[in-house]
Design a protein that fits this description.
This protein is mainly α. The protein has six helices and four strands. A hairpin with a 5-residue loop joins strand 1 and strand 2. The longest helix has 30 residues.
């Protein structure tokens, strides 16, 4: 339920709050920080997050994050969290895929004499292929639901 309903600006507000986990924000602060047209837009999305029990509101009407990990949401389940950044797994796939191709080219062009390089390239590529297959299967399971 939450995975399908938290998206767009609601997801943007949630991600903003998770990037400032120890700070409480009022509606107008969210509106200014995210450049929304009016406080009612920010209030609507904060209310949705509050109804999904993802944020809490103190007695002064200021909102803060209840669950500090944005990867609990379906939209961000396809991301890898690195420090303050949320990197899409597709970017990681491109990086590892290009690196695997460069290693394979270096191995065959330079004709490295050491067999351990061949084992490294084979092992690296097999891990990469299985990781991609795992995520493709997760993606198709998510579509079927």
């Amino acid at each position: 339920m939450i995975q399908k309903d938290v998206r767009g600006k609601t997801l943007e507000v949630y991600y903003f709050l998770t990037s400032h986990p120890d700070t409480e924000f009022g509606v107008r602060e969210i509106q200014r920080e995210l450049n929304y047209s009016s406080p009612s837009v920010a209030s609507y999305h904060l209310s949705r997050l509050y109804n999904f029990h993802l944020v809490e509101k103190n007695e002064n009407g200021r909102y803060f994050v209840k669950k500090k990990d944005p990867l609990v949401l379906g939209e961000l389940a396809d991301h890898i969290r690195v420090a303050e950044w949320s990197i899409p797994t597709l970017v990681v796939y491109v990086f590892f895929g290009v690196f695997a191709i460069l290693i394979a080219i270096a191995f065959f062009v330079v004709k490295m004499p050491n067999e351990s390089w061949f084992v490294f390239v084979l092992f690296y590529n097999l891990i990469f292929i299985f990781w991609v297959i795992r995520d493709v299967m997760r993606y198709y399971k998510k579509i079927e639901q």
